[in-house]
Amino acid sequence: MPRLVVISNRVAVPKARGVPGAQGGLAGALNAALKANGGIWFGWSGEETDKFTGSINYVRSAEGVTTATIDLEHQDVEEYYNGYANSTLWPLFHYRIDLTRYEREFGKGYERVNERFAESALPLIEPEDSVWVHDYHLLPLGERLRSMSIENRMGFFLHTPWPPTNLFVSLPYHERLVRAMLHYDLLGFQNNTWLESFLHYCGKELGADVAPETGAVTLEGKTTIARAYPIGIDFDHFMSKGDTGEARQAQQRLMASTRRRTAMIGVDRLDYSKGLPERLDGISRFFDRHPERTRDLVFIQIAPPSREDIGSYQQIRATLEQKAGQINGARSDVDVVPVRYVNRGYAQEELFGFYRASKIGLVTPLRDGMNLVAKEYVAAQDPDDPGVLILSMFAGAAQQFDCDGEGALLINPHSADDIAHNIRIALDMPLEERKSRYEKLITSVREENVQRWTENFVGDLAGVER
Ligand code: F6P
């Protein structure tokens, strides 16, 4: 396999922004890819400066992965990260045009930072390298690199959904953005739904020649291949976290504090796409319907704050505080608090222990590219006494766990009734059924792992004609 140059907004720099390495699924996945192929990982350090210098910081991690990062200036972070990436593209890609902000300055900042990424990454790219760019922050980066005479194979993977054409066209200059994307040789999406939306857009709005069987999109003589590559977790690595004192301690801690009650867990970045208020409404509905079960169930929601400078994120935080407070105010007793709402992150070992101690995993995003929490929850279960996964039908993971209704309990996250109904089913599910559902899910989580995802994408990229 050729050496990889991975480029993403965030990299797993130790202590980036005061957290132990970049958080989330992307970071874990890319670390695994670089360990397997060698190479370098380039991105933003997470630091802000007064003036952009372009100087590159190199760090070699204990795992042998070299990261190269640049600092961005305040205005860049405001217009590119808080602005175009997370106030324009993120809500739009999650079907939330009500929250999408279209500001000319955001667009300019986005283009400026993509140009800065290209100029800074340029000297790191050697002639035989494969370049692999990630996520909505860097859609036009390939085109910028091509304009600087980079002839390497270049692929791009989108970790979020791609919205339907009739939503996407609400983005000013949408054509320019997608034309820029067609400078990559290979475009990867999490599943067929997002892929089909992208192909539909290319055919309808750009008049490109689209071959759905092969994913070939041809425009003005240049062909790009677009395909679905569902991402997985680094299964062996995650399982090794479970085999630690920290994991066992975390499991004991949660079990001791919930005693005879069933623990139900949700772990999400505090983001409006995750369906958190709707989830609390569903739980509230469950307690309304079954007040006698208030002593049977305790819900633990871990929600580390995210993108805190953005108004819509501040708003969702306030909404959640209010809803969690309402449920607890109405349902608590001196020795019972039904919802534990925690605004902090935990190490993977601890999460493993919390997942294992929880007999229900609640993953109910309104829209999600994949959702790796669903996969980690399954991986952490005790095969002899597994918990039940309640999963949104709008998470990419639901499409991948295609178990004909015999794996996760699939729900509509907009429906409080549906959530409440399935919590009851999960609470009462007999062991045999839990085991058979778990078996179906764990096979997918184990086999369709991040190594396979990397091999498939990098292998296809190596094979594209240039
Ligand atoms: O694709 C979405 C994503 O990149 C996730 O992989 C990751 O968990 C999250 O966004 C990180 O968000 P941010 O870098 O804005 O904190």
UniProtKB/TrEMBL annotation:
<dbReference type="Pfam" id="PF00982">
    <property type="entry name" value="Glyco_transf_20"/>
</dbReference>
<protein>
    <submittedName>
        <fullName>Trehalose-6-phosphate synthase</fullName>
    </submittedName>
</protein>
<comment type="similarity">
    <text>Belongs to the glycosyltransferase 20 family.</text>
</comment>
<dbReference type="InterPro" id="IPR001830">
    <property type="entry name" value="Glyco_trans_20"/>
</dbReference>
<dbReference type="GO" id="GO:0005992">
    <property type="term" value="P:trehalose biosynthetic process"/>
</dbReference>
<dbReference type="GO" id="GO:0003825">
    <property type="term" value="F:alpha,alpha-trehalose-phosphate synthase (UDP-forming) activity"/>
</dbReference>
